[in-house]
């Protein structure tokens, strides 16, 4: 019998959590943004649970919300990903280390170099989450008044990828002969000068790095627009996406894998890992209560502003502790999908305005909230029905919410044969079941 | 009695050494460029010897010499400084961690962020070696055909420094109140928006980092031209320079400290640390023999090319094993200072053409070659005569040349009271005797 398909799990990390109320949750490490000790303990727990990777998100600006909301959020400052992951590489041995790097506000030579260096430092555990940077405020920190236009961003991203991967291939894997007798350190026939001149980038090369241990660090992509999916299909080996439910996840899965196949790539070599907010409880009610408690920690001022955005109209006049007054909500010109999903959620979960606001101010994406058994059931369905190859796990609060996953959910998944009992390889590529790319300038034969 | 003045010592690191023949020296770790284990052992030895800092040089291009010389050199590829130093921060506790970062080919927002992150990770041990990038080949890796012109580079560097230090001051030291009760994570009155718009740079800010532990990481500068010295005088807290002898070092020392005083700064808060190549032997003869052996490991093809450059005329026709044929050497239009110093060296040390070539192909800057006693004597003179506040130590070969310094020279300096027996503080600023800068936007009052 063929071995059954298994899930991949990566941890989507903001040091205090992505949820803006999390720093106020009982037991939270509110100072984790600049506390290496806490981050060490998180990654070591994730490694003990055999996670594929620790993934560090990244943002290039502070001012992405009104100051009244901003001052209540722990999400805007934290360690920079490369420095943090390099430090964490030393206190771990197997878990993958994925950093986010922007193709819009960085240089391919720097990006190629830093990932190659992280891959060497970690003996082959680096991954690059390619983002084009969504926050338009970022442009102002890099000398531009306006954010680069969406299609321009993706066009540059595609070229940026070609340049970075080309730079990683500057030296053949066996270029460094280091023969003391002849005095030859490397074979110049195994050095390739890229000489890239494209629409957006001009980079001569070669990169001043030996080829990465993995050949190329694993390529990850998180965009969801049409050009985002196309970029993923052409380049990514893992996709962090955020479908809202099983049906839309299946459609997204089929779409991206279909595009990859159309681009001549193997469907197996592109893993779809939806972001999932996971709240584990001893009972369904316990899990739900934890989540409501967490959402209640988002200050009402920020929460109601987020709900207004989701509704497309002002919600500040509503009674916080009554149900959503559906008949007072106008139709919207903003996002009708968003409005519809607020209405559905309010009805499904019978939430008050305050609770709904906390949800939108906290985290409103795909969530699995339940016992280890019910969550494992759901994950098994997603895997079997080709909605996901695994998940990008978003922890509701830390450390407790992480411990709940590693100590309760993961053992349940392992019992069912849905998740590895131990690492089988040493590199991130091996964890994800991805081949090592050939050097495009120095093919093996 | 006032405590006597002490030396500061920083280690100038290329993983295999700066000397191009070092990878062939007996016992050398030829693969150290990408071997974290070796670098861990080096930095831990330097910390045990109480060095002020481990300093990682940086270069942004490979093609800076003809391929026939390039293929014999280990110096063009190695770990990138930020990733490496972040990893090393975890295996050390006290030693400073100085990274080189270019103001010509990077963005101030990125540079400010990475240093702030390294400073937080290391609890206040980061230092920034500001360089404008000397190697003109670098431009081609960053979309420019031509290297930015020298004075333009320094003009941009000065503005870059203002922006980076301004970004470090984005948050007051006590901005992060993290009060769960009121739900306020930081006080918005303690957040400053830089809004910099200058000749070369436009950066809004704020930086998405808490203020560094040291306020600002220590500012280091290594340029020697007139604008280089001026930049150092206005901004640097440590200067890595490369005078050739005691007299020129004294002149340089007086010049830079004088410029600093003229700019309204304290002479005490700018440490002059000349680069010194140190070869320790059991006897003067032993040290000299080690150096000759090392120089002989530079392949003659590269060595003679370097000698030709130093002479300003072709030396390839000379008998390698005879003395320099002084009467066959034409005057030069290149550097007359350089030609004169070759002639002086050939006479002083009575070197053959091959030996001279090895010197120029290997390392021809300031060197202390002798026993621990004679080297300590020399260093004491440099310190007493105000030629140096300490040294940027260049190891001839590793690990042996490093062990010779940490296990033989350092104890001799300690015995004489010329070097610390233990660290007195925990930050790089404290090791160097530098004050913590006030936040320019949030003065203490
Ligand atoms: C799981 C996940 C993680 C993401 N992480 C980041 C990030 O760290 N930095 C960032 O700028 N954008 C991040 N994004 C946003 C995407 O990169 C992208 O900008 C966004 O989905 C909009 O892209 P689109 O216009 O192609 O839909 C993330 C998205 C998802 C789903
Ligand atoms: C000890 C020392 C270390 C240096 N390290 C670097 C370095 O890591 N990267 C670099 O590009 N230049 C480095 N330089 C070169 C200087 O930054 C500078 O480019 C060079 O001295 C020429 O500058 P100038 O034109 O002002 O004289 C170093 C110089 C010295 C003396």
UniProtKB/TrEMBL annotation, chains A, B:
DNA repair in keyword set: no
CDD domains assigned: Nitrilotriacetate_monoxgenase (cd01095)
Domain of life, source organism: Eukaryota
Gene3D superfamilies (alphabetical): Luciferase-like domain (3.20.20.30)
Family in the record: Belongs to the NtaA/SnaA/DszA monooxygenase family.
A Pfam short name: Bac_luciferase
Organism: Lasiosphaeria miniovina
Keyword flag Mitochondrion: no
Protein name: Alkanesulfonate monooxygenase
The organism's taxonomic lineage, starting at the top: Eukaryota, Fungi, Dikarya, Ascomycota, Pezizomycotina
InterPro entries noted in UniProt: Diverse_substr_monoxygenases, Luciferase-like_dom, Luciferase-like_sf, NTA_MOA
Chain ranges of the Luciferase-like domain: 28-381
């Amino acid at each position: 019998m063929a071995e059954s398909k298994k899930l991949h799990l990566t941890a989507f990390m903001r040091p205090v959590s992505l949820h803006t109320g999390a720093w106020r949750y009982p037991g939270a490490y509110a100072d984790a943004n600049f506390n290496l000790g806490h981050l060490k303990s998180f990654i070591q727990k994730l490694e003990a649970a055999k996670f594929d990777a620790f993934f560090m998100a990244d943002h290039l600006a502070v001012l992405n919300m009104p100051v009244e909301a901003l001052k209540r959020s722990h999400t805007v400052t934290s360690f920079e990903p490369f420095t943090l992951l390099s430090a964490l590489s030393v206190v771990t041995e197997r878990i993958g280390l994925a950093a986010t790097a922007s193709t819009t506000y960085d240089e391919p030579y720097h990006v190629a170099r830093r990932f190659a260096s992280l891959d060497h430092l970690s003996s082959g555990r680096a991954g690059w989450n390619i983002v084009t940077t969504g926050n338009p405020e970022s442009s102002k920190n890099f000398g531009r008044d306006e954010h680069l236009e969406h299609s321009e961003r993706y066009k540059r991203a595609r070229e940026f990828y070609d340049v970075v991967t080309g730079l990683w291939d500057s030296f053949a894997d066996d270029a460094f002969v280091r023969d003391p007798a002849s005095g030859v350190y490397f074979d110049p026939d195994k050095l390739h000068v890229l000489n890239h001149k494209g629409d957006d980038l001009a980079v001569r090369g070669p990169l001043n790095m030996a080829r990465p241990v993995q050949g190329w660090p694993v390529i990850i992509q998180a965009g969801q627009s049409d050009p985002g999916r196309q970029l993923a299909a052409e380049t990514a080996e893992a996709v962090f996406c955020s479908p809202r439910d099983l049906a839309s996840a299946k459609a997204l899965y089929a779409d991206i894998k279909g595009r990859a196949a159309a681009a001549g790539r193997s469907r197996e070599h592109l893993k779809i890992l939806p972001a999932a907010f996971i709240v584990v409880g001893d009972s369904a009610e316990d899990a739900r209560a934890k989540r409501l408690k967490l959402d209640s920690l988002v200050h009402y001022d920020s929460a109601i502003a987020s709900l207004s955005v989701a509704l497309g109209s002002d919600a500040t006049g509503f009674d916080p502790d009554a149900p959503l007054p559906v008949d007072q909500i106008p139709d919207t010109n903003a996002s009708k999908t968003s409005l519809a999903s607020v209405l559905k959620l309010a009805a499904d979960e019978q939430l008050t305005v305050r609770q709904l606001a906390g949800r939108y101010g906290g985290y409103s994406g795909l969530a699995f909230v339940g016992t280890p058994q019910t969550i494992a059931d759901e994950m098994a369905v997603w895997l079997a029905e080709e909605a996901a190859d695994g998940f990008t796990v978003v922890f509701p609060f830390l450390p407790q919410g992480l411990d709940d996953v590693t100590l309760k959910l993961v053992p349940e998944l392992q019992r069912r044969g849905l998740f590895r009992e131990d690492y089988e390889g040493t590199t991130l590529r091996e964890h994800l079941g991805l081949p090592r790319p050939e050097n495009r300038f120095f093919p093996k034969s």
